[in-house]
Write a structure and sequence with these properties.
With 201 residues, the protein is α+β, with helices and mostly antiparallel strands. It is built from four helices and twelve strands, in the order E-H-E-E-E-H-E-E-E-E-H-H-E-E-E-E. Bound molecules: fe (ii) ion. Fe (ii) ion (FE2) binds next to loops. Fe (ii) ion binds next to loops.
Amino acid sequence: MDLSYKVTNLFPSSIHRLGINNFNDYKNKLVEETYQEKNEDPKGRKISNRGGWQSDQIEIRQCKSETLKKIIIDSLSNFEPISEKVSMFVEGWKNINEPGNFNVRHNHPRSDLSGVLWIKTPKNSGNIVFTSPDFFNRYQEIDSYTDEFKYNSNSYISYYFIPKEGHILIFPSFLEHEVEINKSDEDRISYSFNIKLIHEK
Ligand SMILES: [Fe+2]
């Protein structure tokens, strides 16, 4: 028989990645400011983190760190996929995961997009792992595809990204994710944020 085959992969969950090419100009300052903030508020808050420290959530324009403010505002102003008619309300918090710490699986309610800036991520300090929203409903189907099809269509039950300093990952806030245990012997430092998308008239 003479058959043809074509596939259209619909309804993607887009994970965006921005790279700050001159991040080395900012890294040390950001690390220093994060420890300074931890010293001022050693207790921090507990959300998805198991161990470690997490700062309070504040709007980016109120952020005391001019460096962080510049990085996030500049990056999001140049975030090409979002229409010019849409403005963003951004709130974020800093994270320090010490060796042995991790973040349990969670999502970010009351937010449209969420993101993370990797500031200091030693080798083996914990990948971010996303779980498919179809984990249960489509397990058998996805598990039945060939490895080649899975790879070509990004059909996975879960998928991880290895953190890279100076990179920002932006993803839909509903997507469940976790941060693996920090198996390095140094702290893992990141800045997480939530974006509310506001449609102007
Ligand atoms: Fe998160």
